[in-house]
Structures are given as C-alpha cells and as structure tokens.
Amino acid sequence: MAEPNTIPGYLLRNESDAAFSSHPAMRNKDLGIWQTYSWADYTENTRRFALGLAALGFTRGDKLSVIGNNRPRLYWAQLAAMCLGGQSVPVYQDAIATELAFVFEHSETTVIVAEDQEQVDKVLSIKDQLPALKWLIYCDRRGMVGYDDDIVKSFVEVQELGDEFKTKSPNYFEDEVAKVTGDDIALMAYTSGTTGQPKGVMLSHDNLVKTTRIYLDHEDVRQGDDFLSYLPMAWVGDGLYGLCVSLMVGSACNCPESPQTLMQDLRDLGPTGIIAPPRVWEGMLSTLLLKGSDASPLKRKVFSYFQDLADRIENLKFEGKPVSGGLTLMHRIGEFLVYGPIRDQLGLRRARWCYTGGAPLGPDVFRFFRGFGINLKQVYGSTELSGLATLQPNGEANPDTVGPPCKGVDIRIEGDNSEILVRCAGVFSGYFKQDDKTAEAIDSDGWFHTGDAGLINENGHLVVIDRAKDVGKLSDGTPFAPQFIELKLKFSPYINEAVAFGDGHPFVASMIAIDFDNVGKWAERLALPYTNYMDLAQKDEVRKLIADEIRKINLRLPEVSRIKRFLLLTKDLDADDNEITRTRKLRRGVIAEKYAPVIEAIYGGRQDVQLALDVTFEDGSKSQVDSHMTIDEAA
Amino acid sequence: MQPASQTGDITLNIQSVAKSFGGVRAVIDASTSVRKGEVFSVIGPNGAGKTTLLNMISGFYHPDGGTITFEGRDITNTPPADRAQMGIARTFQNIALFRGLTVLDNLMLGRHVRMKAGVISSFIYWGMAQREEIRHRERVEEIIDFLKLTDLRKTPAGALAYGLQKRVELGRALALDPTLLLLDEPMAGMNQEEKEDMVRYVLDVNLEWGNTIVLIEHDMGVVMDISDRVAVLDHGAKISEGTPDEVRADPHVIEAYLGSSH
User: Do A261 and B207 touch (CB under 8 A)?
Assistant: First the structure.
C-alpha cells in the first residue's frame, strides 16, 4: 500500500492495517484509570463524529475549533474536521473571552467543540459576536443539565446523528477522505504573537505530513511508544509531535487526568518521549531542589555530591575532554544511588528523548538534567514552520545552540540584525486573510523570516540570540540581550519571571516576579506570616532573599551586564493581563508601557514606586489594584 | 441558567418534634416537610435549634416527642446506621474525617454501609470482596471526579486546607449514595471563593444526581440564592416557612433577626 499523504489517509491506514488496528492509539486517564483506545476505536469514534458533523451541515473548507484540556474527544473532533476536508482551529483553553472572540470571529469558525461547562459558558458569553457560529458541542456532560440554547449539542448526540447519517450514506466518510489533498489546509494555529493581534497560520496536510517525515528521519520514534499529550492543543507542537507523529508511526498519545495531576500522571505513565517548554523543566528542577532541601542531612550530602559530580562530568564532555576512570566509577555509583531514582521520580526513566523548545532554557538547568542521565535536547521551530527547523542529534546536545538544520531544511542568516531565514516543506501556506503579513514573512524565494537573531557556529549548529528586535545597547554602547539575563535569573527557584531593562540606559535593572509556592514554603520554614502574593513579595526578608540570589547570579554575568537595581512585582506576570503570551513569552512592548513609572523610578534613583495595576480575571472582568513596590540595590 | 427544579412528593415529614437537654428546650415544637429533589434550608440565629433538628433527622438524637417519617416509613426510633442504609447521609459542622487516612480511603469508608462482604470473604479478598471493592471504587472515583479531587486522592485528609476538607466531607456523605443529604453549615468559616465553589458543588449534586438536600447555613446570601424553600427557626420553634422571597418578607423573620424595634 502506498504511503498516505494526508492526515486522514494515515487514520484510515491505521484502521485497516492489521499491524496497527488493535494497537493502542490513545489513552485517557479517567476515574483514576488509564483507558485505552485502539486505532480501530480511535478511527471509529472519529468517523461517527465526522458523520454527525456532516449531518449538521459541516462541509469542505469549514472550520472547527476545539477548546479544552487534552482529551481524546477533542482530538477526534479535530481529525473529523480534517477528514471532511475542513480545518481544525485549536485555541488556548485558558484564553479569556475577548481573545477567544477575536480568534473565532477572524477564523470564521462554524463549529466549536468545548471540553466542559466552563468552556461552554465562555463561548456562550461571546456568542453574539460570532455570526458564523452554528454549533457548540460539549464533551463532558457535567453541569450541562438545563442548557437549552439551540446551538448546544453533546458529543454523544452528534455521534448518534452520525450513526443515523451513515445508514443513509454509508460511504460518505470514505468518499470525503478521498477528496482531501495535500494542499488542503488541515490546521490553522493562531500564533500568540508578542506584538499585535494573533495571526492565523494556515498549515496544509503537506506541511504537517512532510515536516513529520523530516522529524522521523531524525528521531527514533517507534510503534508502541508513549507520548504525554499535556501541552495546549492550540500549540503547533501538540499537532506535530503528538497527533501527526502518533498517526504516522502508530505510537500512542496519552492524556493526563487533569492539569493538577500532571506530575503524578507523568510518573505513572513513564512516557518514552516528552516535550516541554523551559518553564516546565525549570519548575521540575525547582520542585526537586526544594524537596531535596527537606531531606535528611545525609541524603542532602549524597545528593549534592553527585549533583556536583554530574556537573563536572557534563562540563568535561562539553569541553571535549576525557572523563577519568575514577569519575566514571563514581558516576556508576551515582546512577544507582541518585540519578536513576531521580529519573524514576520524575517519570523519565523510559524516556529516550526529551525536548525543550519554544523559548531558550538556562544552561544550568539544561546541564543539570543531562547530568542526571536525561537525554534533554533543544529543538527549534515556530508555528509558521509547522513546529520544526532544527533538532539536536543524540550526543550533540548543547545548551547554547538549537542544533543543526534538519535534512531538507535550509537556513541562512541575513541582514544587519542577523535574522534567521528558513526554507523547508513546513513553511506555512499563509496567514489567514492577511496576505500583506504573509508577503512580509515569506519572501519571493520562499524563505520564511523568523524575526529571531542568530548565527551558525563552527559545528554547523544554529545559535538563537534573542528576538532580533529586542537586542539593544546600554547607553555606553555595550550590547544588551535581555533574554540572556532573564534566563540566569529564572534559574533561581525563588524567581518565577524576570524582565531585564537596559536598552538606552546606563545600567541593567530588573523587575522580578517571585515564585509564590517556593518563596511561600521558604517563608513558612522561617515562620514568616504572609497573607497573599503582594504581601509576601514586599516583605523585607523576601527582598533580601532575592537580593542575595541576584548577587550570586551577578557573579556569573559579565561585569557590564550585572543587575544594579531591582524590584519585586506585587503580582505575577499574567497572560490574562496581556503581559506574556499564552506560551509565556514576554510582551516587552506591553510591559514597557504598563510599568513605565517603575522603569522611570528605577533609573531616576528613587527608593520606591506606587503603581495602580489593572488585573484581568479569566471571565474578562477587570479590577484595579494599588501597589507599592520598594526598589533595592543588588550591586 | 438554572432549570426549574423538579420537586415532587414529600419525602421527609417532621411532625411536632421536640428535644430538651436538661432544662434547655432546644427544639420545642417543629413541624415541616421536605419534598423530593428540593434544596430545603433551615436558618435561624445561633442557638435556634437548627443542628438539633438535623441531628434528630439523622438519628443522632432521639426526639422527646413527635414523629419523623422518611419515604413513608416512621423512622422516629430507627437507629442512625439503619437510616444511613435507607439513604440519609450527613456532613458535620465540625469536620469529622479520619485525618490520617487519605481522601480516597475516607470516601471508601463512606461506602461502608453499602458493602456486603463479610469478615471471612474480606479476609480471603479474591472473589467476592475484590469484585465488590472494584465496584465501590468506581463509584468513589466518580465522586472524586465530580468534586474535582483527582489530584488529592492519596493526600491524607488532615493535610488538606479547611475548604478542601469540607469538600471531602461532602464527598464522604455522597459516597453513601444518599437520597437525602443533610448538610450542617457546609460553608462555615470559608472565604468567598471557597463558598462559591461549595455552592456550585451543592447545586450540581442536586441538579445532576437529584439528591434532596437539607441545608443548615448561616450565610443568608447563600441560603436565599440556592434554596427552593426555607424554614426559619427561632428559640426552638419554627416561625416561618416558604420560598426565599416569602421568608425574606415575613415580619416574624425580620423581627427575629433584627430585633422588634426595627
């Protein structure tokens, strides 16, 4: 049988090919148990839902949105839309109503599949702004008694409509799948965008299938592998590394029970591969170190000895120097005493590959995990590239690069600001209804302009420096890359988010959002009472704690890049307040505007600053909080 | 978006019950009836006899006089365990969980009256006891899912925050598969957010699973929002009963709460 060239093609292959059909395709932890769906179940569920959609009038070119945590039904809904020649428009489950309204309206979505009552309520609250919307389908019936809106239907009802439809048109589904071509748009992912409104990135079946093939040339993913699907479905990586890889290889996607149980689910699943943004790795490390600090003195000694050992060995390997027999022997002992058990605790014992991507990961965090025997590698891509451009091969992992271009991906560096340009099969088909933006992003030779500044090093690896437009200069002309400093700061378990300033200023300063959990635990240990985030962040003791952390970090920064002054924010940076994107990238423009008085006070030599901050709640309502922040000296 | 509650026949009937402790007449002469599927609240100032009334329904106290019938049967003298068997479950004003047991175990324990396996078959475990445990665990997992306790299954109840303990307590009562659920101040001592959560759960239990709910609560706002009918006690006697609006307008109630000079 010829290799299919569309996503629905693979779906039908997995159903009919005996090598796949009875094997696990998806698991969902429900009522405390991992429930397994075979490829036959998976395809049948998709087919029944697709036929139900057809009965409701969904046809080629129509758009279907899914909103919610990763759930089998939401994946089936996405696939069902693609099978009918439609497009899937996944959106971020934690987006507030106004953001959703923009995406649904702009994409002309006709069907929305929502996970639960909470999401249904959000959609109904903006229903008036969505003229194209015809149906709102919910998966979890809890709390849905008494919703009598005409457009609301349950997932099960739609599948039953599909069964009815099938008796009339038994071959409809297969016929529609046969009509889908590689050029059809399969997925429209809205990029969070650090500036301006989100843009709808159109990815065709060709884009996704070919990019997945490129990926599979570089990584050993096997049938029977387990992938943990916990990253937002709206993120292109979930579509590529989760959905597409699983369909093409026959590996299984596993949906955790809830976001709160993620770490437990990770541990009891023990996936063979995982992809996580830097934030998750940083979080894992913080939690680990914090748990470690509660252990008995002997355990702490053993842990820190082997942590240092792992670090030394990693550094030797990194510099290409030989590792002595003594160190190797100790490393074996460490594997038995510390590294193995820690990997097991994290749920990464079976993991053959672990990726970090989306934003740079601090080198210290990177080395820590590698030192503990976790094959952590960097991957670089963007939504416009279907999620993949470079990937570090095993044995060439390095915290400073993102790896060499994958086979079939061309990369070059162009212009004064060293912008990274990429050309490959994954380059998107255009921004929806924004041809002018498309023309700006893809030049006539097909190169995609990433907006990232970078260089290709002597080993042929790509190095990403920062967003091209963020790289600035201090007032004395020293180059200043904010992200570099922020990463160092975020390595501290007590710091959750950091914003570094310096462009056009005489020295580097920073605003810091403390890690509420970790600082909270620290305060509890000292029997330091506090009421909430704002109170905790302005305690003298906490300010001193962070000042000490910054002093330590400053020692590892070049003298000119050291942080001179800082203040602790009275609230965390929040995507609901528009300060960061849903993938937690800083929106520097918004922050600079919102915190202008703070920046002014820092450089004006003031000791404190008063600021009225807008706080947005998830339902979109706003309130104002007055906060007083003290500015501290770090050097 | 709240559907009209489907309330039906009278399920619980309380006729002239009275209870004294020594010289204190906690409940003097209270009569009321609760219909199937409704949220029925009992309010009143401190010491009005609300908890005593609840305790008589659950069988914790025996009334000195009067009768209580539940689903057509006189239960005035039925022991508490038998009432539980009949489908009456309660939560306590002061949390009554096993602090050292996990959330899961606390809930499993709540199913105790529904378990049939005897000492010997439990000891052998395989076979009947195992099948039964699986069945009960399934029901408990549904409750865990319903009350969003999935991340706390294995956490000892004593280690949970107060609001969460209250939620587990509700779960334990639900584990009994009650038709009548008695809630003794489920929102007491909670902050606003915890209260809203709890209200949501109580309403969901009522709407989704159809449990009849008798609620004792201090927070008037909550009571007026979620109840189908309200009874007001003062000094051990019922002074008013009706829909929240009727009760709010009743001069007796205003007097009891605000004093007669207003």
Answer: no
B121 close to B131: Cβ distance less than 8 angstroms = no
Alpha-helical (H) ranges within chain B are 50-58, 80-86, 103-110, 119-124, 128-146, 162-174, 192-209, 220-226, 244-249, 251-258
Residue A358 clears pLDDT 80, i.e. is over it: no
Q: Dump pLDDT digits (tens) for A99-147.
A: 899 999 999 999 999 999 999 999 999 999 999 999 999 999 888 888 8
Domains and CATH numbers, chain A: 7-29+37-207 (3.40.50.12780), 278-349+351-467 (3.40.50.12780), 472-633 (3.30.300.30)
Q: How far is CA B259 from the centre of its chain?
A: 30
**Pairing status of strand A24-30 against strand B73-74:** unpaired
Q: Return the H-helix or E-strand segment holding A423.
A: strand A419-423
Chain A residues touching B151 at Cβ < 8 A: 258, 260-261, 264
Q: Which of A143, A146, A258 sits opposite B151 (nearest CB)?
A: A258
Residue ranges of domains in chain B, CATH in brackets: 1-87+178-262 (3.40.50.300), 101-177 (no CATH)
Distance CA A516, CA A497 (A): 11
Is there a contact between A391 and A218 (Cβ–Cβ < 8 Å)? yes
Query: Closest-CA residue in chain A for B204?
Result: A143
Q: Please, are residues B162 and B186 in contact by the beta-carbon 8 Å criterion?
A: no
CA A132 – CA A495 distance, rounded (Å)? 44
Q: How far apart are CA A613 and CA A576, in angstroms?
A: 13
Secondary structure in 3-state letters for A535-551: HHHCCHHHHHHHHHHHH
CA A429 to CA A204: how far, in whole Å? 7
User: Does A31 sit within 8 Å of B138, measured CB to CB?
Assistant: yes
Strands A622-633 and B39-43: unpaired
Residue of chain B whose alpha carbon sits nearest to that of A148: B1
Q: How far apart are CA A551 and CA A179, in angstroms?
A: 63
Q: How far apart are CA A25 and CA A472, in angstroms?
A: 48
pLDDT exceeds cutoff 80 at A41: yes
Dihedral of CA atoms A335, A341, A342, A348 in degrees, nearest 10, equals 100
From the list B1, B141, B204, which residue is nearest A32 (CB)?
Answer: B141
Enter the ipTM.
0.77
Closest chain B residue to the Cα of A264, Cα to Cα:
B151
Cα separation, B258 vs B252, whole angstroms? 10
Positive or negative, the CA dihedral A442, A448, A450, A456 is negative
A→B contacts (Cβ < 8 Å), by residue, are 30-33, 142-143, 145-147, 257-258, 260-261, 264
- Inter-chain contact A146–B3, Cβ cutoff 8 Å? yes
Q: Which amino acid is at A571?
A: K
Kindly state whether B224 is in contact with chain A, defined as any CB-CB distance less than 8 angstroms: no
In contact, B26 and B20? CB cutoff 8 Å:
yes
Alpha-carbon gap, residue A122 to A134, rounded angstroms: 16
Cβ A376 vs Cβ A399: under 8 Å: no
3-state SS, residue A203: strand
pTM: 0.84
Mean pLDDT of A481-505: 86
